[in-house]
Structure formats: structure tokens, C-alpha cells
Amino acid sequence: MQQTSDFLDAIDQAGMTEQALAWSAINSGTANLAGLKTVAGMLADAFAVLPGEVSLVDPAPVTAISADGEEFEKPHGQHLVVRVRPEAARRLLLTGHMDTVYPVDHPFQANSWLDDDTVNGPGTADMKGGIAVMLHALMALERSEAGQAIGYDVLINSDEETGSLSSAKLIEELAAGKYAALTYEPSATPEGNLAHARGGTGNYSLIVRGRSAHAGRNPQDGRNAIVAAAALALGLKELQTEDCPVNPARIEGGAANNVVPDNAVLRFNIRPKEPSAGERFEAGLHALMGEVRQAHDVSVHLHGGVTRPPKPVDRRAQKLFDLVRDCGTRLGLSIDWQATGGVCDGNNIAACGVPVVDTMGVRGGKIHSPEEFMIVSSLSERAALSALVLHRLARGEEL
Fold first, then answer.
1. Biggest alpha carbon distance in the chain?
2. What value, to the nearest 5°, has the Cα angle with vertex 90 and ends 88 and 93?
3. How do residues 110-161 score in pLDDT, each as one tens digit?
4. Model confidence band, residue 255 (pLDDT cutoffs 50, 70, 90)
């Protein structure tokens, strides 16, 4: 530990706190493009201290389905990319996200201190604090001699909270050829546990088109899209298995009470626990769509799919977890892990065959709620942990 103490000792707790609170004070809900632009500029300035190229990358086109079943393009913010030593033989990927779940008109907009070491604020834990951890861990790595032997890319996307649809291709491109990856979601528990294996997720819309008619004069001439959507919802629950939960979430459509509705949109989510479970579900889904088309004389179209594949932990990924735990022990931290049903960009990275630990951010809790909090002292604690992991990888640690 003596040989690494110099670069760890310079980690700036006060500076990290100031940055995390400044970033979280700007509303950066995924749909708030103006707020995201402001935060992206602040982050670009902060990450310019690293010896690499900083750029803002335009989002890929993404479409969504409106309540009346029409497809439209959904705008997103730019993504921040930093490339350092692209010529290095061993390169890593570090990722985070600048967006939050709190829209511009949400009442939760300000930081407040709960006690001397706990701050309540939007995105403090998820994950402006994690971005500060990432930045200062890399700054510490750059102060070490070993750090110069390794290269890395940083991605901070603007759409993680809605599935990373406009950055998925960019994640895939940046993951290609990387030796390992770290993602800075908050720890799985306030005590600092890591998320281990993760299930996957898929978001879908079924667009149903029927035929309108007068509900009193000639209802037999109509084809009720709402009834067909309800049949689909019931059928979806029949497709649910233990390794693939299904949640029909919302049916939209219809018109006046005296009109047979000719349109409906059914939105639903699945959570496959391993890849074959999602494949089996999709086969059943297409069969169900065919049955409803025939039984209700309607058209049914599908939009969406699995956006985050399940993330099992293979041998190399487990060695990365073991490395994080060993580095924690050297720093006097007790690091453990647990499986979770939640998803993040770590799912996408793992699907590229890259070992990843995706909860390297701050300790905190109650994320996605107005009670979200960050344990402030964990900023420097987790930065030291990441810096030591990066240092070990830079010195040739094998996975």
C-alpha cells in the first residue's frame, strides 16, 4: 500500500463535493435538453483536466410511439466522450450518465443537507456523485507512473435513465477491444455493496388498429381495439415465466363512450433473467399477436424490444469483482456484492464480452425519489477504490 499512497493521498474531497453539488443543482432530466446541454458543458470543462480528447457526440435517432399509435422521433441530448492514450496496448472503458429521472417541472430540484455527511438532492447519488468519483479516480491514476501505461475511454451519456437508446451503438463501439470496464452507478446498498449479476429488460408497445362504429346503432360493424388490447394484456401475463416476468403497464386509446374504439396502444415491460428467456418470450409474443389478430379482426404491430440484455457474471468478470474487493480490503473497506433485478449500461457493456463492475459510484440510497441521498464522505472513499483498481490494471493485473 505504501507504493500507491502518494497518488491516492491527493484525492480532493472538498473539490469532489463542490462539483457533485454544482452538477446536481442543474435539472438534467432525460427530456430536458436545455439542462442536459448546460451539464454537458460543465462536464466537458471538468474532464478537460485529463490528457485526452474531449468531445460531445450527437445522439443516434430514436423513435417512440404516441398515444394514438403513431411513430415519431424522440430528441435526446449529446453524449460526452473522452479518449485518452488510444494507442495503448491495454485500454479500459469508464461510463456514467448525466441524466436524471426528474423532469424540468418536478418539485425536487434543490440540494439540502440532512446532516454533516448526508446530502439530499436530485441525482446526487444517481449519479452526479459517481461522475465526480470517476473523474477524480482518473486524475489520481494520471498522477501515478503506472497510469501512463494504460489507455481509456470515458462515456457519459444523456439517456441512461430511459434505456440508453440513443447511445447504445456508441456504448458498443467504445466497448470494442476494451480489457475491462467500470460504471459509476451508486452502490447497491448504502453500506457499499456492489450489484453482481443483473437481469435484462425490454420495453415494448403493441399498436392495435380496429374499426370504429356507432356503439348503439351498429356496434357489430366495429372492431374494438381496446378489447383486443385487453386480450393482449391478459395473454402477456400468460406468457410470464419465473425467468421472464412480464408487466403490462398501460393501455391508451379510444374516444367517446358512444364510439367503438379503432385504436389502442398497449405498453409493457419484460425482465428476462437470462438470454434464452427473452428469446422464448418473443416467440410466444408473436404467436399471441397472431391469435389476437385472427380472433378480433384487428391489426397488431410491435415496436420496441430488449434494450438491456441480462448480465451474467463469467469467470473474467468475477476476477474483476475479486480485484475490487481486494483493493477495498487494502483501503480498509469491506466490499461485498449481490444479484439485482435492476439494469444499467453495465448490461450493454457485458453483452459486448467486456468484464464490468457497474456500481463503482458513491454510497447513498432512495434513488429515483425525492428522498434520494448521497453519503458525502463516500466520494473520496470510492475515488480511492477506483483509482487503486485502475492502478492495478495499469500494472498488468490479469483477468
1. 87
2. 100
3. 999 999 999 999 999 999 999 999 999 999 999 999 999 999 999 999 999 9
4. confident
d(CA 36, CA 39): 5
Strand 299-308, strand 356-357: pairing: unpaired
User: Could you give the CA distance from residue 56 to residue 65 in angstroms, rounded to a whole number?
Assistant: 27
Q: Three cell numbers at 366?
A: 432512495
CA distance linking residue 125 with residue 190, whole number of Å: 10
Contacts of 156 by beta carbon, 8 Å cutoff, 6+ apart: 40, 43, 79, 80, 95, 96, 97, 98, 131
Question: pLDDT band at 1, cuts 50/70/90?
Answer: very low
C-alpha separations of 135 from 24, 142, 200, 258, 314 in Å:
15, 11, 28, 60, 28
Per-residue cell: 250? 398501460
DSSP string, 151-206: EEEEEEES-GGGT-TTTHHHHHHHHTT-SEEEEBPPPSSTT-PEEEEE--EEEEEE
Nearest to 314 by CA among 273, 353, 348: 353
**The three cell numbers locating residue 282:** 418473443
Q: Backbone phi, then psi, for 100, in 5-degree steps?
A: -125, 175
Question: Which of 345, 386, 350 has its CA nearest to residue 139?
Answer: 386
pLDDT (tens digit per residue) in 256-310: 999 999 999 999 999 999 989 999 999 999 999 999 999 999 999 999 999 999 9
Facing residues of 286 across strands? none
Residue 219 CB contacts under 8 Å (≥ 6 apart), including other chains: 213, 260
Taking the model in full, what pTM does it have? 0.95
The secondary structure of 299-313 as a DSSP string is EEEEEEEEEE--B--
Q: CA dihedral defined by 133, 135, 140, 141, rounded to 10 degrees?
A: 110
Q: What angle do CA 322, 20, 101 make, to 5 degrees?
A: 85
Give the pLDDT mean for 8-12. 94
CB burial of 162-182 (b: ≥16 within 10 Å; e: otherwise) equals: bbbbbbbebbeebbeebbbbb
